[in-house]
Amino acid sequence: MPGRTIIRRRLTVMKNAFGTPDQGSGILPSARGFVPALEGLRAVAAFAVLTTHVAFQTGSSTGSVIHRVWGRMDLSVAVFFALSGFLLWRTHASHARRGGPGTARSAPAYLRSRLVRIMPAYLTLVAVAFLVIPQNASSSAWTWTANLTLTQVLVPDSLVEGLTHAWSLSVEMIFYLTLPLLWWALAGLRGPAARWRIPVIAAVGMLSLGWALVPWYDLGLPDRLNDQILPPAFASWFAAGMILAELATSPPGRVAALARPRHARWGWWAVAAVAFGISTVPRWFVEGFVHPSGPEFAARTAIGAVVAFCLLAPVALAPEGQRFAILGSAPFGTLGRWSYGVFLWHVLVLHFAFQIAFVPMFSGRMLTVWLVTVAATTVIAAVSYALVEEPARRFFSPRGADRPDGQATANPAQTSPATVAT
Description:
The structure is a single chain. This protein is mainly alpha-helical. It has helices at 2-18, 36-57, 65-71, 76-98, 107-132, 141-148, 167-185, 197-208, 235-249, 254-257, 264-278, 294-316, 330-337, 339-357, 366-396. Helix content is 59%, strand content 0%.
């Protein structure tokens, strides 16, 4: 009997090292379940992006310090890309350390879940934008096709009125499609070799910052194609979230330990605020939505990665029992569930908000236009969630299946796309 006990103990140790998960192995709560505070962060970032668009179209994104703050809230895009990287990578990161042979999940099931989550509401938006905005009536078949298939960043002159912000959703969809290839590329780094995963991901993210420094137009890129909205330019933002997923599923280390004290979050967020503030300094960065030089774009992208990492780290690396009273509250959770609709519809709403408020564009009446846009967008986002997003998910998902990424149906934050961008 003692011999059997010893054997069982040794088998348990082997399983914990190479096989099944061990709940006491130090995996953080964010690595295995729904995190209400992440849903709250999604809501904050969604309305931050709405704010920067209102600021631009009211002529309030340049000039004074506060205007430059409104104008640089487009860095919230980095937060959403990092959220995607974190939520979609964490299962694979955990599997590399504790799973058995094979992959964390099948690629077809994963891709199906992404399409079901993204496309129904997006196609609804495209149809409305092309029908209600007169300028879009003369769009070519190529433009229609590019927008319907979310390939507009790859097709010149395909950003149309009411849908200009969807370039980021196009980038996100391409990331979704390439994620199974990333799983395969890092499949060999498992077990003891998993310690190399973070350095590899970080190296790729750092290398991507050089994208804007390459003279792509001299190398044959079409002049009418914007190289600064192509997917490789934003690999560092996705990498920030993927690294957080690796940290959340790794044995506790120094970086994760920095997020344990209850008040440590303010240190992380202070770093994010300082980095964001640097991006608003006109001596170093141009104001407004202006196509920057290659070096400036690389620097701003790096700042976005820092901002995203530091904003998400306190939540992603929080230990069991740590709570975020505001971000994890019910109102923020509700707005987080609607955040995809906020992203989708706010630019189209803003197109008509000036008429509703009887305010000319670029008139400086930012507060008035912001209130109208927020109110109308929130209502439409709620309707979109209730009548399009959720019914589509229930209809297209296999009966009895959990939500995508192995998450329970009641946990919307685990499947909401991290895609609110300019």
